[in-house]
Amino acid sequence: MSDMTLFEGGNSLVSSDLFKSLQDVDDNLSGGSGGNQNRRISLRGGRFRQLVGGEQINVKSDGFLNVVIVNAAKLSRTYYKGAYDAENPSAPTCWSPDTQKPSSDVPKDQMQASRCMECPQNIKGSGQGDSKACRFSQRLAVCLEGDMENVYQLSLPATSIFGEAKDGKMGMQAYAKHLKAHKTPSIAVVTTMSFDENSDTPKLFFKAARPLSEEELEQAVAIRDSDEAIQAITLTVSQTDGVQARGGEVKDDEVDIYDLPKSEPEPQPKKVAKKKEVAAPSDSADDLASIVDDWDDD
């Protein structure tokens, strides 16, 4: 009898959580790591590209992609000193996971300031043209519609985050506020992402396509705090692609492939408005449907 059939034949131990957890040791012994299988969606070339362990496995030929947003990191900042060389990628000079202060992992001799608001790289003109050298980005953990088993990292450039809604087209912050106004969590809907065809740099718009089914929602909630989802919103692009040994950090898609825009969108100041009386919320399914219907009229 082959030693590979020791646990075959209906052995109940094989399907136990304990048995499955023990296989993590084999990953280490075989020289493998979960990071090599990390998944990412790249925006390079104005196309949605699916990557696994840094290798491209699929490219969407059109400019649309339906996803479920299962988790999101806080807004972050990254600064690279000097021009980017695609042939010799390097680690960022300084970065902040919360836009308030540099990460504790930033070497002291590379730290640009103790607080982001006082940083010389956070001033207009410090970057190309009128832009700031230190740039905003935000990492999302998403699943593709119809595939709630696999989690992808998506790093949004600043152009896809800020800006007011116009003609039904929304950046991420405007989209999130719209959903919140309808008392709808982003994890409860399928979100359609589309490229702004009039932008020279990667810029996405977001729109609710449909509510999740009860089964899909249960899957999304279950995967929200999984290791894969947490890694998607915490790992750098290079860590996700497993390219540390090939030269270090890779820039976000916004500046990896495209020329920098003349200026970077600024976060919109919070407006304080008088509270208006709001009608009692309707049935959740009807409210979700109304969100989709609103956009269908655009």
Question: Could you give the topology of this structure?
Answer:
Layout: H1 17-21, H2 23-29, E1 39-42, E2 49-52, E3 55-59, E4 64-72, E5 76-79, E6 94-96, E7 134-144, E8 147-157, H3 172-181, E9 189-195, E10 204-211, H4 214-224, H5 227-234, H6 237-241, H7 253-256, H8 284-296
Parallel strand pairs: 1-8
Antiparallel strand pairs: 1-2, 2-3, 4-7, 4-9, 5-6, 5-7, 7-8, 9-10
Describe the structure.
This protein has 298 residues and is α+β, with helices and mostly antiparallel strands. Helix content is 21%, strand content 22%. The protein has one domain (31-259, 283-296). The chain has eight helices and ten strands. Strand 2 and strand 3 (55-59) form a beta hairpin. The longest helix has 13 residues, at 284-296. The protein is globular and about 55 Å long. The chain starts with 16 loop residues before the first helix and ends with a helix.
